[in-house]
Amino acid sequence: MARPLSEDLRERAMARRAAGETVRAVADILNISPSCVVKWSQRLRATGSAAPAKMGGRKPGHLTGTHADWLLERAKTSDFTLRGLVAELGERGLKVDYKTVWTFIHAHGLSFKKKAFWQANRTGPISLESGRVGKDFKARSTPSALFFLMKPPLKQIWRPCGDGSLEGKGYTPRFPMGIGKQ
């Protein structure tokens, strides 16, 4: 991560500028860029010191105070979509983006996932035909290995002989893949 240049270097640069040297002359002598000297001079005039400002840290969120209270109340009283909340906040005079609203809702534990008809319950997969959609859902999803075991077997792709058995040792696939003998 980048670090600010030392305060000693900044003080020497500002002392040379105060003595009347040009920005480019100071930059060449101290082996720094002219833009550094200009920015340090501006900081010295604005704050009285050329010391670096605080770097890093966490930016405070936009959703604070009355907007946060309104959003919490709104999320608890009725159903919502994040895009709808962005639009409602825009009508209230606060311009925020989708990610800001998502972060706020997620941080307060107000988000949820929809339960889909394909999620598994204790006895097996739930289908539309079973009439049990939305009942007996597990809190966690079934591991993907179990879904693999629940798949139906593949259809036979080998050409049967006239008597119904597969051709001898040299049987050929119904849909040749272009690998090996055909």
Provide an overview of this structure.
The structure is a single chain. By secondary structure, the chain is an all-alpha fold. Among the domains are: 7-47; 65-107. Helix content is 41%, strand content 0%. It has helices spanning 7-18, 23-30, 34-47, 65-77, 82-91, 98-107, 144-150. Helix 2 (23-30) crosses helix 3. The longest helix is centred in the N-terminal third of the chain and has 14 residues, at 34-47. The two termini are 62 Å apart.
Q: How do you describe this structure in short?
A:
The chain has 7 helices and no strands.
Which helices and strands appear, and what pairs or packs with what?
Blueprint: H1 7-18, H2 23-30, H3 34-47, H4 65-77, H5 82-91, H6 98-107, H7 144-150
| Overall pLDDT score | 75
The residue ranges in which pLDDT falls below 50 over 5 or more consecutive positions are 126-139
Give me the secondary-structure category.
mainly alpha
Q: Shape from CA axes?
A: elongated
Annotation field: number of helices: 7
- How many strand elements? 0
How is the main sheet built? none
Give the amount of beta strand, in percent.
Answer: under 5%
Taking all Cα atoms into account, the compactness measure Rg is: 34 Å
Distance between the termini: 62 Å
User: What is the H/E string?
Assistant: HHHHHHH
Helix content: 40-55%
Keywords:
0% strand, 182 residues, elongated, mainly alpha
